[in-house]
Amino acid sequence: MWSDEDCAHWTARVAEIYGMDATISGLDGEFDLNAAVMVNGQFTGVLKIMRADCDVSFVDMQIAALAHLAAGAADLPVPQVINRSDGAALGHIPDKDGAMRLVWMLSALPGRQLGNHRPHTPALMTQIGTALGGLTTALAGFDHPQLDREFKWHPRTPHWAFDALDAIEDKDLKSIINEYFYIFTDRCEPELSKLVARPVHCDGNDYNLLITASADGSSLGGIIDFGDMTRAPVVCDLATAAAYLVLDQTRPIEMLSAFVAGYHGGCPLSETDIGLVWPLMMTRLGVSLVNSALMKQQRPDDPYVTISEAPARAFMLQAASWTAAEIEMRLRVATGMDVT
To answer: pLDDT of 108-136, one tens digit each?
Structure first.
């Protein structure tokens, strides 16, 4: 949580290091500190204050990826790095307690988080899918050693959550999650090993997508948070986003179909990809629910760590009677593939 002292400290550092006469207010974050930078009442940037042990290479990956996108896909709604007054993209700055923190800044993007926006429409889901698929296409050719790092949310290594499943107290929910964890091990993992891994954003959840509203309807204003970038099959990126885009929807499969159709338009999918979407989505939601259960024990007063828990739980229970074959058929129709 941000205190008045934190805000005052970083306001002074922004003036000193970035030459900005700004005010600072805290934003949500799982591991790092984020702050809105306001200049003359306008949301100008997001100050990123990394965890104390953050590897410089981890931030360098994100900066390099954004530079790659700016050079080759300037139409994508992603942030740009705001350099310091000395021209550097990042540097170490002491926090108010004297600990050195790696700090950088990104440009602000318009809109509010999809999770706080209504209504959601199939047209909006298609637009989001097209943009995320286009982002994956634009990242082709990008490379960085940090793409191959291990981290908690890597879509190909959710096994830590399998071992922590007892953190789920609801027996019905636990049984559903366990079923999809078995499906991941028995079916998804072998198939993923045969697919080409490529650079992907892999965190298109409903709080990393910014939506703008106008008289003409809602549209995608921004894709943020490149901290979960990795190297993985394309379907992992799609399924990660899809897992959250179906939550709190009256007609979730209609929204899913629109999203997948859009993604296919931005980055062509294979029949194998389509068959993996549903089990990978459900695996991701299971991992998210296990994580929420564990984080509630560690940070009981932080609502951010359980932000998706209730809708994810409701969706998994609702979808328990649906068949993977039915979902796959709907997705094949949405992407113009043969229905067999």
So the answer is: 999 999 999 999 999 999 999 999 999 99
